[in-house]
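Supplementary Methods, section 5.1.

A reviewer requested that the exact input to the structure prediction be made available. We therefore reproduce it here, unchanged from the version used in the analyses.
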Amino acid sequence: MPEITIEALQDYLQRLLGVPVRVLSLCEHGKQELTGDLKAFGYGTPVFLEYEAGGTRKQAVLETMSPSPFGHDHFSDRAQAILWEHSAFNDLPRHVRSLDSGAFLRSGKIVSTGQTEEFFLLTEFIDGQGYFRDLDRIAATGVAAAADHERSMSLSNYLAEIHSRKLDSPSLYTRRIRDLLGHGECVMGLIDNYPDHYEFIDQDLLRKIESACVSWRWRVKHRGHRLCQVHGDFHPWNILFREGTDFTLLDRSRGEWGEPADDVTCLTINYLLSSLLRSGRLTEPFETLFRKFWDTYLERTNDTEMTKVAPPFYAWRGLVIGSPVWYPRLPDGVRRTIFNFIVNVLAADRFDFTDVNRYLA
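The structure derived from this sequence is encoded token-by-token as follows.
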């Protein structure tokens, strides 16, 4: 929890208002603390402050947001809500006015974010070649060299390693399964951005898929013991290889913790897609890559539940690669096969990675 001090508040208010500020008192709701610091106050507890700015006595309320399983689990959830409140409060007549939004730094300093228009992320630059280029080469030549198998196994072993880090938070796992359906980048968000009718894809087909995913949520959401560290968007465009099996990842997404099937399905469906583009089925050399990835992962993790939770994650990733928005130039036959895969995987009790072609017809 943050530690708020009169010194930090005065410094922040002076920078915000541009005049000398003296904090006169701080108190939590129902309490009064006329002098000194208010330390480790509870998230979600309003702090009432009285201060003098440029000789004028004023009052304000500093509010934070409590972590909760109602969509406020993550630091970023709470930041999103507070930034929205600052941008929206002053546009509604008779609403209390927002003076600023801000953030507590680890140093104890308070900084303003109220003038923010957009956020950015500055990362280091990494050399490397996208893993999708390997898959394109394999599809073009029909050959997966020993180095290709080594890279695939290195990725599988990497996932096994990061997934071994667990977190005991059943409510967060349930939230992540809920997000699998309701998040704007996941099942419902993707479906809502499909055209009303595109080739063979109509509203009835999409409704059927969405309904099946909702049923799967009830089969999966109580498996909170599976919550682990994840990447969250482990596809070939986010994997940069250098020499051999030396790689770096880009753009982890949607949460630090989640269901391990998210990462496994995200990568392996791209072996399927590459094979469909080459031959219309899961055939060599991609079939061996697909199966060895799964075999390697399960051998390392002994995750006997993985095949029981994978179907809705494959459905989500299938909706991505089957989308005319994301993949507008996908051949009609391949798109149809992907939708067959989605529907048939959702109808199965568990995913059989040894016989993927059974889901394609």
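The mean pLDDT is 92. These observations are discussed further in the main text.
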